[in-house]
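A quick word before the example. In earlier lectures we treated sequence and structure as two separate objects. From today on, think of them as two lines of the same record. Here is Octaprenyl-diphosphate synthase written that way.
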Amino acid sequence: MLQIDDLDEYQLIKAAKDEMVRSMDDRSQMKRMLLHICSSGGKNIRPVMLVLCTDMCGGDPKSSVNAALAIEFIHSASLIHDDVLDGGLMRRGVESAHEKYGIPAAILCGDFLISKAISLISGYGNSAVNEFGRAGMYMAEGETIDISSASEEFREKNYFECITKKTGSLFAASAAIGAYVACADEDTALKLRSFGENVGNAYQIVDDLLEYLDKLEDKSSTYESVTLPLLYRRVMDHDAAVEKTVQQVRLCVQNAKDILASFPSSDAREKLELVTDLITVDMLPEDVL
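And the structure line, produced from the sequence above:
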């Protein structure tokens, strides 16, 4: 079955990212850290979505590469900072940046990536830049909610606010920015923002469910957030909690696909539908479906 890294859009982004890191001064400690981070792989999901949304809205996919890199770099920065906050030991199967290089260097690497991302997005006009800035602020707000999730006052509505800001916001910005790069109108961009948010929320719920089921092998940390299946376990048994969590995933995925269905049929739309499934329902274990 076709995977994300089989897509031309993935190869386009990977080549641009590799070239940017390769062009840095070989004596730079920052380059060594970035090479370590890039070696951990990653599917470039958000930037791939951005490029595909540009294509679906009638734009030139190559014109969106810098915007896609900006999204990938701020995402990578957030992972570095999250690992520092959570005491993350492994990320995508390799040692986390702060474990390998120390906390001060890891934080500075994250700062470098944010600065580079701002530079890359700055040439795309106010609408795209505003989407980007909004996502960055929401991601930070979402992390503050996540940090407080151990409180007994943390409820389902708090969880959804948390993941919508922490994860959904960058998916939302990716899709909306893709539309803006194609010079689509605001209504189209807002529609795609909602699409991205639903995909991002489904993606995070799946990740949380896999962690609850102890099926994440390439990630470990010393801090555990209170996630949706854990919240459901407060009031129901294990099987019911898992079933209800899967229902939430399916609802978000259906919302996302309903939005895509409002766009004309195209190769880009089909790829967006494929990516949506690959990172959500296709990740669910067979025994919970």
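Notice the following. Residues 4-283 form a domain with the Farnesyl Diphosphate Synthase fold (CATH 1.10.600.10). We will return to this example when we discuss secondary structure assignment.
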